[in-house]
Design a protein that fits this description.
Strand order of the largest sheet: 7-6-5-8-9-10
Largest sheet: 6 strands, mixed
Number of helices: 16
Low-confidence stretches: 54-66
Shape: globular
Oligomer: single chain
Protein name: VWA domain containing CoxE-like protein
Radius of gyration: 27 Å
CATH topology of the largest domain: Rossmann fold
CATH class of the largest domain: Alpha Beta
């Protein structure tokens, strides 16, 4: 029997690691895993360049050549690998090797478990889908967006809930439970023999709600291919901000054209299905459009979500941002709005915007919600 540790190394190293088995064959399960890995990573052209693959042939597990299709491959990896590995393999399939039938083949779509990588793949390839396939793909969009919304909505609600005051309250709510005062005032009820503190009277904070004036929050989202994560999270963030007291939310998508998606903000699934990723970028044109929407400059936040690779006029963009800042508008330049907040962007243009008063950086959606709440609550 082959040592499981040696088999794992063999799977990591591929065909180049055959020597580590000492002439022994892979077990049936390890051979199936090897075939599944080779179906995907065996198409890497760099293997031939580095001489890893002898004679230009790929490695295969088991007794015969692999005859895997996308459908059987998905079934196999679901059976052979843990969920985290399956999601990584699916992500590599659609992003690294552009195996589009992972999200365009009806038979495949009926099998896949929705996850963020597949959502991005659907958004990038939905223009290739016929209406029947698009209906199946929409399931992925709906599931992942629902999960993101549930998670982010909690952060947004917390950001917009009033600060706790230090005075007591008659209203008993678990989130306002005053632990310190309750313990201090009930120490007389501590029983040594039980090693327990018995609560005779619980105490609670009051929660004051900030006075809020109406604010405009204008999200300008770059649709270029590198901004897919930010597009998704911007749609979900806008949906969570929609309808909050004191906030009127706009969502504008742009490439070389500008599309106002505000009418669909309350339905992020429908909104994302309308987004067209890719194409050029005219940031100045989008900021000009946002400037026309502003009603009260000193109660407006413009969040420009872009990698700042401008295809239009950099000079016009800088001038417009300067004008917005001078009239009292809060301008945020966000090179990323997603859960990692780890951007790649044109630092030179970003610095020019910062020099005229914009706040430039990257945020998670929760951080953006906190920033908006702090501005609205002033």
């Amino acid at each position: 029997m082959t040592d499981p540790d040696l088999e794992r190394w063999r799977l990591v190293l591929g065909e180049a690691g055959n020597a580590c088995l000492g002439g022994q064959a892979l077990s049936a399960e390890a051979g199936a895993r090897d075939a599944a890995l080779d179906w995907l990573y065996g198409r890497d052209e760099d293997l031939d360049r580095r001489g890893v693959r002898r004679g230009g042939s790929s490695r295969h597990g088991g007794d015969g050549a692999s005859t895997l299709t996308t459908v059987t491959w998905l079934d196999d990896i679901t059976r052979l690998f843990p969920k985290e590995t399956v999601e990584r393999l699916q992500r590599d399939a659609v992003e690294r090797y552009e195996i589009h039938d992972v999200v365009t083949d009806p038979a495949v779509l009926q099998r896949v478990e929705p996850n963020p990588a597949l959502l991005k793949a659907v958004l990038r390839t939905k223009h290739l889908m016929n209406p029947d396939v698009l209906r199946l793909a929409r399931r992925i969009v709906e599931t992942v967006v629902r999960q993101l919304t549930e998670r982010l909505a909690t952060e947004v609600r917390a950001a917009f809930t009033g600060a706790r005051a230090r005075r007591p309250s008659r209203f008993r709510q678990a989130r306002n439970f005053d632990v310190r005062r309750t313990i201090r005032n009930n120490l007389a009820h501590y029983r040594v023999e039980d090693r327990r503190l018995y609560i005779d009277m619980p105490y609670f904070f009051s929660r004051t709600r900030r006075h809020v004036d109406q604010w405009q929050v204008i999200l300008l989202v770059d649709q270029s291919g590198s901004m897919t994560d930010s597009v998704i999270h911007s749609a979900v963030t806008a949906a969570c901000l929609w309808g909050l007291p004191g906030v009127r939310t706009h969502l504008i998508a742009f490439d070389t054209d500008v599309v106002d998606l505000t009418s669909d903000v309350d339905d992020p699934v429908e909104l994302l299905m309308k987004v067209q990723l890719g194409g050029g970028t005219d940031i100045a044109r989008a900021v000009d459009y946002a400037a026309q929407l502003i009603e009260q400059p000193r109660r407006t936040i413009v969040a420009l979500i872009s990698d700042f690779y401008e295809g239009g006029s950099e000079g016009r963009l800088v001038c417009t941002v300067r004008s917005l800042v001078e009239q009292g508008t809060r301008v945020l330049g966000l090179a990323a709005l997603d859960e990692q907040a780890n951007p790649a962007y044109d630092r030179a243009l970003a610095q020019r915007l910062a020099d005229v008063g914009a706040s430039v950086g990257a945020m998670t959606p929760g951080e953006l919600a906190t920033f908006v709440a702090e501005q609205v609550g002033r």
